[in-house]
Amino acid sequence: MAFGSRIREDLAAAKLRDPAARGTLEIALLYPGLHAIWAHRVWHRLWRAGWRFPARLGSQVTRWVTGIEIHPGAVIGRRFFIDHGMGVVIGETAEVGDDVLLYHGVTLGGRQREGGKRHPTIGDGVAVGAGAKILGPITIGARTAVGANAVVTRDAAEDSVLVGVPARARARRTGEDTRALLTAPEYSI
């Protein structure tokens, strides 16, 4: 996909997922989540080309500017959106699918010191509430909603709702809307 098309796709995804978004120019200039994603694409390319130090340096500069830390080794899908973003951390071996939404303070982190896959795999269409922590080499199935401040340390099937510490899964009810789930007080702690 061409660079310009990818930018337009990101802007449309932000407009779709953020009810406060008023216009494309505002989104392009004022959304640090998008700035972090755009920068990540550059640093990820350098990382894959073997330019590890410049990629890490660039990702740290992006962290200082946006408050969002995405390791250049992380694999991020299309139409990924970070709403507000401050305090988001995405580890080196994390894999994030398409159409994923993260709110501020989310961690996709590790639990072990050994090498290899240490961070989570997030399926397509997943929404993760503010402050949630998804830890370890686990898989979160597509279209899952993770409640605010949940701590997830186990795999979750597709279409799950994860809440609590430690997070417990339940199946999504017919017609349940992800945005509504993430704003309901019973899905946060």
TrEMBL record:
Pfam families: Hexapep (PF00132). Its EC number is 2.3.1.30. It catalyses: L-serine + acetyl-CoA = O-acetyl-L-serine + CoA. Pathway: Amino-acid biosynthesis; L-cysteine biosynthesis; L-cysteine from L-serine: step 1/2. CDD domains: LbH_SAT. The keyword Amino-acid biosynthesis applies. It is an enzyme of class 2 (transferase). SUPFAM superfamilies: Trimeric LpxA-like enzymes. Keywords: Acyltransferase, Amino-acid biosynthesis, Cysteine biosynthesis, Transferase. One of its GO terms (molecular function) is serine O-acetyltransferase activity. InterPro entries: Hexapep, LbH_SAT, Ser_AcTrfase_N_sf, Ser_O-AcTrfase, Serine_acetyltransferase, Trimer_LpxA-like_sf. One of its GO terms (cellular component) is cytoplasm. GO terms for biological process: cysteine biosynthetic process from serine. It comes from the Bacteria. Belongs to the transferase hexapeptide repeat family. This is Serine acetyltransferase. It comes from Microbacterium hatanonis.
